[in-house]
Amino acid sequence: MAKVVVDAATCVGCGLCEQNCPEVFEMKDDGIAHVKTHTCASCDLKEVAGQCPVTAITVS
Ligand code: SF4
């Protein structure tokens, strides 16, 4: 199973990951993205990670 991590120190809170995959990513009041679950049936999470402008998402 994939493990998805958002580096809180790197995330700039643009919201793109939540826009791309709201199943996995959620923006919270602290202004950064949080990981809700590590799998998504409809997204390629490595692709979503690759679109993060500051490379804050790691999928392993
Ligand atoms: S795409 Fe990257 S910078 Fe933007 S909210 Fe998600 S983790 Fe943060």
Topology overview:
Blueprint: E1 4-6, H1 16-20, E2 25-27, E3 33-35, H2 45-51, E4 57-59
Antiparallel strand pairs: 1-4, 2-3
Bound molecules: iron/sulfur cluster (SF4).
Q: What is the string of helix and strand elements?
A: EHEEHE
The number of helices is 2
Please give the CATH class.
Alpha Beta
Fraction in helix: 10-25%
CATH fold name, please? Alpha-Beta Plaits
First-to-last CA distance: 9 Å
Give the names of the bound compounds. iron/sulfur cluster
Overall outline: globular
Structural description of this entry:
- This protein is an alpha+beta fold.
- The chain has a single domain (4-59), classed as Alpha-Beta Plaits (2-Layer Sandwich), CATH 3.30.70.20.
- It has 2 helices and 4 strands, in the order βαββαβ.
- Iron/sulfur cluster is lined by residues 6, 11-17, 32-33, 52-54, 56-57.
- The site of iron/sulfur cluster (SF4) has 15 residues, from helix 1.
Notable characteristics:
60 residues; Alpha-Beta Plaits; two-stranded antiparallel sheet; 20% helix; 20% strand; globular; binds iron/sulfur cluster
Task: Sum this structure up briefly.
By secondary structure, the chain is α+β, with helices and mostly antiparallel strands. Helix content is 20%, strand content 20%. The mean pLDDT is 97.
